[in-house]
């Protein structure tokens, strides 16, 4: 009995450590995947608004807020990329978080417009952290956009 108790005290931590490390790696991988799923959703919404003719976008670098016509708004607040529907301003309430900052902390949300090309090009990028990893995503939207700053 004493031998089996000693055996359990010694070998259980040895065998459980790899399982704990595997669980931590899987959790990290899910959080990275969440970041890129968020980026994929953002890409789809940007393209959908252009396809729907919602081309009057408003960008505020000071508040990191992008209003896409009358139906969609995106902004960065305290590590959260936030979304709102309906016709509201950047300072109105009723914004919903799209990510948990404890899982994927979004550090920047940037919008730029290149009007030197024959067709205007908009670039939207987000950068975030998952653990010690810095993740970046950027999309280019081509089309007839009317952007006010």
How much helicity do the residues have? Answer: 25-40%
Secondary-structure element string? HEEEEEEEEE
Tell me, briefly, the overall form. Answer: elongated
Strand content: 35-45%
Cα radius of gyration in angstroms: 22 Å
Q: Indicate the low-confidence ranges by residue numbers.
A: none
| Widest beta sheet: strand line-up | 5-4-3-2-1-9
How far the N terminus sits from the C terminus, by CA atoms, comes to 76 Å
Organism: Aliidiomarina sedimenti
Protein name: General secretion pathway GspH domain-containing protein
Secondary structure elements and their pairing?
Blueprint lengths: L1 H50 L4 E5 L4 E4 L3 E6 L2 E6 L10 E2 L7 E10 L6 E10 L2 E10 L3 E3 L1
Parallel strand pairs: 1-9
Antiparallel strand pairs: 1-2, 2-3, 3-4, 4-5, 6-7, 7-8
């Amino acid at each position: 009995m004493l031998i089996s108790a000693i055996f359990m005290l010694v070998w259980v931590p040895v065998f459980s450590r790899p399982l704990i490390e595997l669980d931590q790696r899987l959790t990290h991988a899910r959080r990275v995947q969440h970041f890129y799923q968020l980026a994929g959703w953002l890409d789809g919404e940007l393209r959908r608004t252009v396809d729907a003719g919602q081309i009057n976008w408003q960008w505020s670098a000071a508040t990191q807020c992008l209003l896409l016509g009358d139906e969609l708004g995106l902004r960065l607040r305290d590590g959260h990329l936030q979304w709102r529907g309906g016709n509201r301003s950047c300072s109105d309430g009723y914004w919903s978080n799209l990510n948990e900052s404890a899982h994927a902390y979004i550090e920047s949300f940037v919008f730029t417009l290149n009007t030197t090309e024959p067709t205007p090009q908009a670039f939207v990028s987000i950068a975030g952290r998952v653990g010690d990893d810095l993740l970046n995503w950027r999309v280019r939207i081509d089309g007839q956009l009317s952007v006010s700053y």
